[in-house]
Amino acid sequence: MPSFDIVSEVDKQEIDNALNQARKELATRFDLKDAKTEIIPEPDKIILIADDSAHLKSLREIVIGKLSRRGVDLRNVEQEEPAISSVGHARQELKIKQGLEGNKAKEIIQAIKSQGFKVQSQLQDLQIRVTGKKKDELQTVIQFVRSRDFGVATNFKNFRD
C-alpha cells in the first residue's frame, strides 16, 4: 500500500554553513569590530553572546539572516528572551525544533481527517505516516498539507508504492 511520511526537520549542515558565514561577517563588520561576540552551536540550539543588548540584536539579525538565506525554515527556530546581566553582558538562545511534537502532529492529523481523504494517518516517532490505496489521493494530501500553515516546517519523505 502506498505511503509517505510528514516530517519537520532542519538540515544541520545548512545551519553549520550559516553560522560559519555569520562568523565571517562578524569579523568584517565595522560596528562589531571591538565587541566581544560569540556564536556557540549546540546539538539542538544556538547560543549568542555579546557585550550588550545592542550588539546582541545585531548578532541575532546576522545569524537569522544567514539562516534564512541558507534555506533553513525560520518556523523551526524558536527565539528565547535575551538574558541581560547587570554588568551588561547579553545572552540569547535560539532553539532548533526537530520533529513533529504532540500538539502539532495532532493538529495536522485532524486537518487531514477533516478533509475526508481516504487515507490513514498515524504518529510514529515525531513523524506522521500517511497510507492510502491510491497514489493520487496521497498526492492530494501532500498538496493540502503544503497549502496550510501549521506553524512548523513540513517536509515529505519516504514516498513508497
Q: What does the radius of gyration come to? A: 20 Å
CATH architecture of the largest domain: 2-Layer Sandwich
The share of residues in helices is 25-40%
Oligomer: single chain
Uncertain stretches: none
CATH H level of the largest domain: which superfamily? YajQ-like, domain 2
Q: With helices defined by DSSP (H or I, 4 residues minimum), what is the helix count? A: 4
Q: Which secondary structure elements does this structure contain, and how are they paired or packed?
A:
Blueprint lengths: L2 E5 L4 H17 L9 E5 L2 E6 L2 H17 L7 E3 L3 E2 L5 E7 L5 H13 L4 E6 L2 E6 L2 H13 L7 E6 L1
Antiparallel strand pairs: 1-8, 1-9, 2-3, 3-6, 4-6, 5-6, 7-8
Helix pairs in contact: 1-2
Q: Can you tag this structure with a few keywords?
A:
4-stranded antiparallel β-sheet; 2 domains; alpha+beta; 5-stranded antiparallel β-sheet; Alpha-Beta Plaits; 161 residues; 4 helices
Note down, in words, how this protein is organized.
This protein is 37% helix and 29% strand. The chain is α+β, with helices and mostly antiparallel strands and 161 residues long. The protein has 2 domains: 68 residues, Alpha-Beta Plaits (2-Layer Sandwich); 85 residues, Alpha-Beta Plaits (2-Layer Sandwich). Strands 2, 3, 4, 5 and 6 form a 5-stranded antiparallel beta sheet that branches. A 4-stranded antiparallel beta sheet has the order 7-8-1-9. The longest helix is centred in the first third of the chain and has 17 residues. The relative contact order is 0.22.
